[in-house]
């Protein structure tokens, strides 16, 4: 739902409104995925058009309330269409929609990358029932994206919590594994807690240090000095509050990470509007939103990995379409006899 733009405000001050236009486009695209097509006005049906009217019509206008509302509606629809046209221009053939008349039509390709990421943002929940698989699969997609971004010789691993692939769940075990995988180089992924930190912290104390993905470019020699990319994933609607989740200073209180300063990165299935992109880039490092993930994966260097992703994406979409699981009814309280 679009928020109201602020008068005489710059782009950053209106960042919530600008981001909400992207949300409207997402709603329209998702309706097209589910129904085959969507009216380009579908994404703004829930907006309080009349409330925003004064932001678009001059104070000296003599239009009726109805006319003002219609003018605002047309303005918002135009902005929504411009957002969709921008996505189409950037992604080209990898954008799975076409504008036909006044409708947005879903044209699925061989890969369901875009639709899967979109579905995650439109799921009714990420924390209940089958929906809990959505953020986990997104982290797998982020791993492939990071590896694809760094190039054909790169390596990437999932490190986020929970870690079903690991026998030992502690953060120390992850650091030890990375030390093994990266060549046991001096000063890189060596477990070395600060004096005031426990030597073997529980998962209650530290789960993943905010790091869901680690990718690197190995040197063929055994010398120190590899480049590491540390990634944070954010799937929920509160993604704009997650830019500072990776704290390098705190990570170095647990381990020697790298001699070369690592690069931080941020992965989200949302389309990040420009004002938020600037903030996120300053605070979280390289940002990979839905547009960039699709752009990177279409040039993926690991064709055998990317080839498996459509099945994953289809499952993601099917799960995202499920309604939120109903909450179980509370068990009846046993009755007691006697006086209180």
From TrEMBL:
Name of the molecule in the record: Uncharacterized protein
